[in-house]
Structure formats: C-alpha cells, structure tokens
Specification:
The complex is a heterodimer of chains A (275) and B (308). Chain A has 275 residues and is mostly helical. Chain A is 77% helix and 0% strand. Chain A folds into two domains: 35 residues; 212 residues, MetI-like fold (Orthogonal Bundle), CATH 1.10.3720.10. In chain B, strand 1 and strand 2 form a beta hairpin. In chain B, helix 3 runs parallel beside helix 7 and helix 9 runs antiparallel to helix 12. The chains are: A mainly alpha (275), B mainly alpha (308). At the A-B interface, helix 1, helix 4, helix 5, helix 6 and helix 7 of A face helix 1, helix 3, helix 4, helix 5 and helix 7 of B. Chain B: This is Sugar ABC transporter permease. Chain B: It is found in: Cell membrane.
C-alpha cells in the first residue's frame, strides 16, 4: 500500500515538473498568439494584460497585405521543390538500397554532407549565376536551390525506409515476371508510402523555414514568407500586433505538419532511423 | 530451349542495367551540376578582386590575406565561436536534464512531448522575431519579470555586454528541445532488464548514470553536438533579425559578415572567401566529430544498430 502511494506521488511530481518545463518552452509562443489578438496600445501595457477583449483587426490587416502573396510564394516553392525531390530521392534511395556499388558509402556520405553546406557558400555563386541568367527573383531559382538540400535529405531518409522492406517480397514479384522497374513502381514504392509522407513533410517544413537563400535571391515578385516577415519588422517597427499575426499565420502549417510527423522527428531532424 | 533462356537472361540483365541508370543518373547529374559547378565557381571568385560593377582581377590569396589581417574578421570569428560554444554547453546541459525529466512514463506525457518539440520546427527567423518582442527593453516581458524580481532592466539588444546573450537565449530556446529529443531516443533504447537489475543491486545514482545511461547516451550526445555545432557555426537568421549584428560587430556571425560583404559593400570576392572559411571550419569539425563517432570514414554502423 505504501509502495503504491509512493509510486503515485512520484508520478505526479514528474508530471508537474514536465508540465512546468513544457509551459516554459511554450510561453513565447503563447505570448505571440496573445499579442496578435491585442490592439496596438494593449501590447505596450505593463504589467501585461492576460485577459482582454481579443481583436481580429491585426489578422484582417495582414489578410489584405502583401504577406498573403508571400505566403503563397512560400507554399508554392516548398511544394514544387518537395515534389521534385521526392521523385529524384526515391529513385536514388532505392538504388543505394538495392544496388550498393563500390564506394557507395562514400557517395552517400558526400550526399549527406550537402545538407551541412553553409547556405552562405551556396548562395554567392548562385546569386551571380542567376543574375546573369535573368533568374533572380523567380520561383524557379528558389526551387532549384532548395532541391539541392531536399534531394540529399530525401535520399538519406528514404534509403532507411527502403532498407526495411523484406527482400522476399521483391524476389517473389520478380519470379512472377515483373521487370526491375515494375518491382520498384508496383511493389516497393507503395510499401514506403509512409516514408514518402514523412520525407515530404520534412522537406516542406525545411523549405518554408529557409531564410538566407530566399533573402538573397528575391527582391519583390518571389519574396517568401520569412523574408516578408523580416521586411514587415523593418517597415512596421513596433507594430507588433500585425507582425505577430503574420507570424502566427505562417506558423499554422508548420505546427500542423509537426503534429503529423511527431513520431518521426528523429528521422527528420537528424540522420537516423528509429525503431 | 537453352538458347531461349539465355536470351531471357540477357534481356533481364539489360533491363536491370537500364533501370539502374534511371535510378542514379538524373540525381547524379542534378547534384553535380547544382553543387560542384557553383562551389568551384565560388572558390574561383574568392581568388579575384571582384567588386560588383567592376572587372574582376585575379589576386591569388589576396582576399584571404586581407581577411586574416582584418581585426573585424577575427572579432566576428570569435563571436561565432563564442555563440557556438556557449549555446552548445547550455543546450547539452539543459537538454540532458530535461530529457531525464521527460523520460518518465506518465499519462499525458505524449502531448507534452509534441508541445515541447514545437520550437525547433519553427523558422529560426520566427524564433528571432519572438525574442525580439520578449527582450524589448521597454515593454518586453523578460525585463518586466527581471524588474519584478528586483533586478535591473537590461538593454538586451543594444548593450555590448548583453546583446550576444539575446542571440544565445533564442538559440537555446529553439534547440534545447532537439537535444531533449535525442536524449529521449537514447534513453528509450536502454533495455528494461538493465534498469531493473540496477534497482535490485541498489546501484548508486552515479553508478547508474555512469554504467547504464552513459553508454546508451554516447551516440545521442555526440550527434547532438555534431548537429548543434554545425548549425550555430552557420548561424545567420537570428542575429539578422534580432540585433542586425550590433552593437558594433559584437553579434555579427561569419555568415552575416559574408552576406554584408556581398550586399552592402558589393565585395563579391571577399564574401566568397568568408564563405569558404565557414565551409572549412564546418568541415574540419564534422570530420573530427565523425572520427569520434566512427573510426572509419563511413556512416557509423552503431548509429544504425542502436536505433539512432
């Protein structure tokens, strides 16, 4: 009996500690959401107002600003580069998984290291190149650069998923007279559908969040949401209500995506697999 | 009949080879074109006196020599290293602690775990914006609480002593959850029997940490160090939005300095040289850490086996 109460007490203590930690980390998020619902004056009031009549004026202002267009740009660039990367990535990941050639470990390592490439090093040559090609400030330019990072990421993550497919399934399909390409498209690819979804979501998040490349390669037409946010901050200065509203709108897709991939965070955020 | 099979086998092989070409060729062509060409090009630029609007002129290591002689460059390198090391120390310490706290199996923990991982999924730029609001010297909440607790308000973003801490706080807030994630995964791989045995043997907490947890946490810790140090060495977004690199250059990172040389001073050659300096530092670091992770230069098998 006493042992049991001890266990319960310990659990409650741990839960309270965990709750405290989580709340501490959530606090800035909550604060920004609150700020987005306040009037200009309420934001500057100290001690801070926790209970107030929320206003949607900030959201209304943002809905009628360039920011929505920039958000559209962001989603477009992210979607296209993710799609392209999944095609390239799944083909090559399957290749590395099924036909390990000599030195493929080194090639994989090289591909992996592309993800660690400092964006500043990538962006300078591309800035010059795209300027001479007249591609600056286009969606295409951003898609091309994001594909470098997304393809290398896709290959890495998808290889893990392909490795997990039992080889017997493919052998059986081959005995049934499937060609190698048919085995891939009809047997293996459908089996890694969850892997494709996970990979896609991480590619989308990473592309949505990217800042330096977008800042460098765009000026007006192709500006993405993070660059738009930075510009808002410069132009609006202390109009934090509107800035917060824009940040909240921008965060929504990322938060939704995160909930979807909550069990695959390790795979996505580092280069590993999880059992 | 025998001939027939032979033909079939040969056709199979031809199909297989053609398929392999499809698997590898598009990606290899794309990556080589998109990576090697620009990188080679930017190495070349770094050897030219290339100011936008003027004809480039070959100067060998001139840009590098100019950088290495400039006090600003070394200051910025120091700032970058200081941010990296400080963030690393705090994030690892805090991450381990929180990881242990969150590893308990308690109902409701699943929800908390999703919530605590949210910061690292946000754009670093957005994190920077958040903290710009929170650290504002007149109406920011951080100063409000400091004053409530009897401390003096701090000019977080403009005071030479504290500006760097604004950057560090933002990074710690955003990326400690990442360390927690890896620690949790590491703790999850410890066999239940091992922990029970330790309880039965009445092992001291230190013994338990040293002999049970540490071996299983080695890989997550090294991975966390690897990823966090690479990311902080390349840091750009947070100082850009939070302090703009100021006051002076006290929060300017190498990436920010490179960006400024490109866009404010139009010195393309110098910017390339700086960016290559970053590439080299990151590479050296990755190689050292991967040497520790796995003696052979390949993806460590252990990482695959332990589930990390």
């Amino acid at each position: 009996m006493r042992e049991e109460t001890k266990v319960v007490v310990r659990r409650v203590v741990f839960l309270v500690v965990a709750l405290g930690i989580t709340l501490a980390f959530m606090f800035p998020l909550v604060w920004v959401v609150l700020a987005s619902l306040k009037t200009r004056l309420e934001i500057f009031v100290l001690p801070p107002k926790w209970i107030f009549l929320p206003t949607l004026q900030n959201y209304r202002d943002i809905f009628h600003s360039d920011f929505m267009y920039q958000l559209r740009n962001s989603l477009l660039v992210a979607a296209i580069s993710t799609g392209v990367s999944l095609v390239f990535g799944s083909l090559t990941a399957y290749g590395f998984s099924r036909y390990p050639i000599r030195g493929s470990d080194n090639i994989l390592f090289w591909i992996l290291s592309l993800r660690m490439l400092p964006p500043i090093a990538v962006v300078i040559p591309f800035y010059l190149l795209f300027r001479s090609l007249g591609l600056l400030d286009t969606t295409l330019a951003l898609v091309l650069v994001y594909c470098i990072f997304n393809i290398s990421f896709s290959i890495w993550v998808l290889k893990g998923f392909f490795d997990e497919i039992p080889i017997e399934l493919e052998e059986a399909a081959k005995l049934d007279g499937y060609s190698p390409a048919q085995v891939f498209f009809r047997v293996s690819l459908p089996l890694v559908r969850p892997g494709l979804a996970t990979t896609a979501i991480f590619c989308l998040i990473q592309s949505l969040n990217e800042f330096l490349v977008a800042l460098t390669l765009t000026t007006r037409k192709a500006v993405t949401a993070p660059v738009g946010l930075a510009k808002l901050q410069t132009f609006l200065g202390t109009d934090w209500g509107r800035i917060s509203a824009a940040a909240v709108i921008f965060m929504i897709p990322v938060v939704v995506f995160t909930v979807f991939v909550r069990n695959e965070l390790i795979r996505g955020m580092s280069f590993g697999r999880m059992r | 009949m025998v001939e027939h099979i032979d033909v079939l086998v040969r056709r199979r092989r031809r199909e297989e080879r053609r398929f392999q070409l499809l698997l590898f060729l598009p990606t290899i062509v794309f990556l080589v074109l998109m990576v090697l060409f620009p990188l080679v090009y930017s190495v070349r630029i770094s050897f030219y006196d290339y100011v936008r609007g003027r004809e480039p002129r070959f100067i060998g290591f001139g840009n590098y020599a100019q950088l290495f002689r400039s006090e600003q460059f070394w200051l910025v390198t120091w700032v970058t290293l200081r941010i990296t090391l400080t963030c690393l120390a705090i994030e690892m310490g805090l991450g381990l602690l929180l990881g242990f706290a969150l590893s308990q199996k308690v109902p409701g923990m699943g929800v908390l775990r999703v919530l605590i991982f949210l910061p690292m999924m946000l754009a670093p730029l957005v994190a920077g914006l958040f903290w710009r609001l929170l650290l504002d010297q007149t109406f920011g909440l951080v100063n409000f609480f400091l004053e409530r607790l009897g401390f003096q308000a701090v000019e977080w973003l403009t005071d030479p002593r504290f500006a760097i801490w604004g950057i560090i706080i933002t990074d710690v807030w955003q990326w400690t959850p990442f360390v927690v994630l890896l620690v949790l995964a590491g703790l999850g791989t410890i066999p239940q029997e091992l922990q029970e045995a330790a309880t039965l043997d009445r092992a001291s907490p230190w013994m338990r940490f040293r002999n049970i947890y540490l071996p299983y946490l080695r890989m997550p810790i090294l991975l966390a160090v690897l990823f966090r140090s690479i990311d902080t060495l390349k840091m750009f977004d947070v100082p850009y939005i939070l302090t703009g690199g100021g006051p002076g250059d006290l929060t300017t990172t190498l990436s920010l300095l490179g960006y400024r040389n490109l866009f404010s001073f139009f010195k393309v050659g110098v910017a390339s040289a700086i960016s290559w300096f970053v590439v080299i530092i990151v590479n050296v670091l990755v190689n050292i850490l991967l040497k520790i992770l796995s003696p052979r230069r390949k993806i460590p098998q252990e990482m695959v086996d332990t589930g990390l």
